[in-house]
Amino acid sequence: MEYEEAKEKIVEGLKKKKGKTKFYFNDLAKILDEKPRAAKKLITKMIEEQVLEYWSSGSTSLYGLKGYGKQAQAEEKE
Amino acid sequence: MAKHKTPLLDQLETGPWPSFVSDIKREAESRAKNERNIEYQIPQDVCEDLLGVLELSFKQGRTHWKHGGIVGVFGYGGGVIGRYCDQPEQFPGVAHFHTMRVNQPGGKFYTTKFLKDLCDLWEFRGSGITNMHGSTGDIVFLGTTTPQLEEIFYELTHNLNQDLGGSGSNLRTPSDCIGQARCEYACYDTQALCYNLTQDYQDELHRPAFPYKFKFKFDGCPNCCVASIARADMSYIGTWRDDIRIDQKAVNAYVGGELAPNAGAHSGRDWGPFDIQKEVINLCPTNCMRYEDGKLDINNRECTRCMHCINVMPRALRIGNDRGLSILVGAKAPILNGAQMSTMLVPFIKVEEPYDEIKEVIEAIWDWWMEEGKNRERLGELMKRQGLQKLLEVTGLKPDARMVQEPRANPYIFWKEEEVEGGFERDINEFRKYHQR
Amino acid sequence: MAFISSGYNPDKPMEDRITDIGPKKYDEFYPPIIAKNKGKWLYHEILEPGVLVHVSETGDEVYTVRVGGCRLMSVSHIREICEIADKHCDGHLRFTTRNNIEFMVDSKDKVAPLKEDLLSRKQPGGCYKFPVGGTGAGITNIIHTQGWIHCHTPATDASGPVKAAMDVLFEDFVNMRLPAQLRVSLACCLNMCGAVHCSDIAILGYHRKPPLLDHEYLDKMCEIPLAIAACPTAAIRPAKVDFEGTKVNSVVLKEERCMFCGNCYTMCPSMPLADDVGDGIVIMAGGKVSNRISAPKFSKVVVAFLPNDSPRWPQTTEVIKKIVEAYAKDANKYERLGEWAERIGWERFFEKCELEFTHHLIDDFRDPAYFTWRQTTQFKF
Questions:
Q1: CATH, domain range B7-159
Q2: Domain with CATH 3.30.70.2500 in chain B
Q3: Which residues on A lie below 8 Å from B208 (Cβ)?
Q4: Given a contact as 3+ CB pairs under 8 Å, which chains touch C?
Q5: Which residues are within 8 A (CB) of C78 and not within 5 positions of it... i.e. 6 or more apart?
Q6: Which residue in C14, C225, C267 is closest to A57 by CB distance?
């Protein structure tokens, strides 16, 4: 999949999900309909371009659109 | 004069064992005096506030930390754990108190030059408090503010040629035992393999794309000093497949009392004279040893390499020469379905650079787990859910009785159609020719 | 406190960025004698508690002095370690997997001055900075997690109980009188960052109350779907809840399903579960990781709950001491604590350790519980 197409799919796909802004890697791979390794290359680029950002519970990692979500607001304030 | 009174913590400043309270106070004093004129990048009284908030926890029996998930260094999904104090007005010095994990060197060997460089950096840009080391093995920098994270990372990578470790859903910082560097039991070079895989899998370590955490640990022998069998998703445990090397003269020196058994590990009590029959032969789990007429005989084919005899008589017995490692997979700590030990997957594999054979197993497992693993499912749990057979299928490994404790005690085998002659398609009319309705 | 830049440009994070370089290579840090003799070691011997010699086929000998340490360590303390290593060990040292520090020298005559130097250094309250020991059939350093110093879900402190326990067990750190080595570990909650589940004695923090629900703020501060997904037992579900007369989005909790892991609190700060009375310590015993003689085993719960009696946790240290003394007195040479318990039978273990057997100690968690009940007529009176 081309990067721009993937980006569009992800941004659209994540904005659609109401009330939720953090997603597991597999949720993103599913949106892209790609095998994990291929999906990872695209997602890594989206991180580098600051489309996505990581969120870590320490033990688990999640992904979200940069700046979205209640945690982002709370932590910006801190 | 201390900023906060700490009457409870103060009670941990006596007794023989080193006191972490005295140590933090020492750091607090050092920062207050600032004899080296450092332009501290986080509050100078951070250690005082750390003691203050800890005293409050001692008093109330509750933690005062909150988790933060966003902080990190750019492009990495791991290596930083976000922490905020829930009493920031009272303890402003620790309002932000994030942790950084710094990938430790193999065998945890250091030069003082490198340690001092780390100390200088962490004193300048952080609290000056560390863990040497965290549970997974990393050097842990304990407590800094968000703006300092990138600065510290920049200095680590540019000035010290040093990277962060892992956290979250990625390959966690691999760790190893002291291995051949200073141990005669090591069956392979744990540090070389650990380093090679760590370097090869940097992307997996820094950019999370796994369902959950994944740990590599490297033990040089079945004594398992880094506990790989209990806590690593892939445990690499050294072993050998030929004969234990015997020095009969040394065996008799142990029998004669000239050498201290167990390398002197029991010298704190009088256990009586060494009795090879009672202490070695009878304790051998496979009964494969005999000592007769001053000669020790081992039936090596029956030996399961438990290390007991070698541990007891290290000057007489040595690991074999045809060495390699066993790969066991799927260990984890309790949450959720209970703890799991690693399960034998590859009984023996040679350890030879560039370790391609080992990497083939790793990558086959990852491909399976990344596709089939549920969110937050460890490898060991996926193995339980889909079965050891499935793991053999994806790794292309042949079933081997060494992989099980015992065969199954139920006959409920879910035969697949292709395994049964003629398949499952049958003609009911043909059947009815011989069996009435 | 002026901000001093490292050279990093926040507007262009990828500019001049170095990533994926990994750790320093191990052999940069080997002392010369280690570099020279790697893979050539013939045998080792513990000369006295805390002092080892390893002998190489080249004839070289390396002497190691092992000292205990707090894993929580200041840079001032690390600098003092470096000063010692510079003075005695040509600027080299290492740490063990159990938070001990090892100073290595290449000849026997260097051992005594090193040891003397180490033992002469004390903290203001009289604690050793560098107690020598932790070898052989004794108790080495306790590995542990963060506790109240840094963790957001601990049910107990870590450094505090460890200090208290090591003070009580100190004689066995500097001695080797036990039947075999005895490993003590601490994890401050059941998530077990410290993987204590295979220790001879494990000190485990445990919560006993489900999280509080801060309905007023829950929906403002948390993404409810994440809190729900975080729960390993599916005890949380979304709900409209009455708050001071108005309906607010929040969650409700099936309390009997909660296993007190705190994973929801990680995702949602409006679900704190720390509690001064609810939180405390579980004692587990009989685990090991070594394959020596018997297979590795899990630790078993032997005391269901002890309170957080800070600052010195006397009830916890008393139980540990009782187990250690019963084991020291009764076990055979080479027998690990778990092997001893299995040989004499767990019914005898509770008797000899003077511990009460309670209903909480009978497993009732999912399928494997059944396999821990007794299905034989063989038992001891």
A1: 3.30.70.2500
A2: 7-159
A3: 25, 54, 56, 61
A4: A, B
A5: B115, B116, B118, B119, B130, B132
A6: C267
Of B197, B161, B185, residue with least CA distance to B307: B185
Selected from 3.20.20.70, 3.40.605.10, 3.40.50.720, 3.30.413.10, the CATH number assigned to the domain covering B175-240+322-403 reads 3.30.413.10
pLDDT of A73 over the 70 cut: no
Residue B297 Rama label (left phi>0; alpha psi -120 to 50; beta): beta
* Residues of B whose CB is below 8 A from A48: 75
φ, ψ of residue B320 in degrees (nearest 5): -70, 180
The reply to whether residue A70 touches residue C222, judged by beta carbons under 8 angstroms, is yes
Q: Do A19 and C225 touch (CB under 8 A)?
A: yes
Ordered domains of chain A (ranges, CATH): 3-77 (1.10.10.10)
Dihedral angle at the C-alpha atoms of B269, B183, C173, B55, nearest 10 degrees?
A: -170
Amino acid identity of residue B243, one-letter, is: D
pLDDT of A1 > 90? The answer is: no
Complex ipTM tops 0.90: yes
Query: pLDDT at position A77, please?
Result: 56
B with C: how many residue pairs have Cβ under 8 Å apart? 440
**pTM for the full predicted model:** 0.96
Region B300-307: what's the mean pLDDT?
98
CA distance C25 to B107: 10
| R_g of chain B, CA atoms, integer Å | 28
What residues does CATH 3.30.70.20 cover in chain B?
Answer: 245-316
- Contact of C190 with chain A, judged by CB distance below 8 Å, is answered with no
Cα angle B354, B106, B131; round to 5: 145
Cα–Cα dist B74/C11, whole Å? 12
Identify the CATH number of the domain defined by range B245-316.
Answer: 3.30.70.20
Residues 110-129, chain B, touching C (beta carbon < 8 A): 110-116, 118-119, 122-123, 128-129
Written as one letter, the residue type at B357 is: E
pLDDT value at B412 more than 80 = yes
Residue intervals of chain B classified under CATH 3.30.413.10 are: 175-240+322-403
User: Using a CB-CB distance cutoff of 8 angstroms, which residues of chain B are in contact with residue A39?
Assistant: 209
Whether residues C221 and A20 touch (CB distance < 8 A) is answered with no
B277–chain C Cβ distance below 8 A for any pair: no
